[in-house]
Amino acid sequence: MNYRILYILFFSGIMFTSCVPTKDLIYLQNKGNENPSNIVASNNKPYRLQTNDILNISIKALDERLVEMFNYTSNTQLSPTIESLFFNGYTIDDHGNIRIPILGEVNVLGFTVEEVRKKIEEQLLKDYFKKEAQLFVNVKLAGFRYTINGEVVNPGTKVLYQDKVSILEAVANSGDITVTGDRKEVIVIRQFPQGAETFRIDLTDANAMKSNVYYLQPNDYIYVKPLKQKTWGTGKTGIESLGSIITILSLATATFLLLKN
To answer: 116, 178, 186, 209: most buried, per Cβ within 10 A?
Structure first.
């Protein structure tokens, strides 16, 4: 048998198996018979508040002087920072309560922000204001916070100022998944009152939009695992793999010649 041909076949096999296939890098592929345009996200439900969430609450009226006592925080900031939201927002304590001036403690655990808005508005109209005051209450989460780690360009804790965030938006906001990141099994750890639960989602499949974690919830933790190609260290592309093979062949040849001499 010609050993030269055997070596070529062996190293060619290493080169092709070490490369990351293009199909593993493309998001939301149509892997079945279903038309991706007909896929509807299944978990687009209102978020229910948990402990340690921070709320931004503003109360307005026809006569602003009537509500000055409630708006002791700097709700007029156009571009709030994470620090200002932490110090000026209403943090939900371990008992599920927030403390609002005059109103005192208000339980909001398990409520949606819209339910909290109605609850505060009803209590103010009942005890302090008449309908003629034209009371306006606005309640929002003080930023959508999530953490992403693993094979992404910019890992860490992120805050987006929007009400709804998909996992693809979170990935894009983190600089995208690296070439050696496993898009087929992204892990999402979600907190519930009864404890944490782990989900897995294949971002290369269009059916990912049906997943319970396609739309994130505040405080979700996302982890992107590395592909085997990273641990092999042979290269992410054909050119990198070829360079690695040439280096190995050069070392092997040099070693053989030294031993022979």
So the answer is: 186
Nearest to 95 by CA among 197, 195, 193, 217: 193
DSSP state of 181: B
d(CA 195, CA 104): 29
The 3-state DSSP class for residue 189 equals: strand
Helices (H) and strands (E) in the chain, counts: 6, 10
> Coil, helix or strand for 221?
strand
73-85 average pLDDT score: 58
Q: What is the mean pLDDT of residues 215-244?
A: 74
Cβ–Cβ contacts within 10 Å for residue 65, how many? Answer: 7
pLDDT tens-digit map of 145-190: 999 999 999 999 999 998 899 999 999 999 999 999 999 999 999 9
Cβ atoms of 148 and 121 closer than 8 Å: no
Both tokens of 49, joined, read: 């508040």
- Compute the CA torsion angle 62, 65, 69, 70 (nearest 10 deg): 20
The confidence score (pLDDT) of residue 84 equals 74
CB 146 within 8 Å of CB 152: no
Edge-to-edge strand list for the sheet holding 54-60: 90-91, 54-60, 136-141
Q: How high is the mean pLDDT of the chain?
A: 81
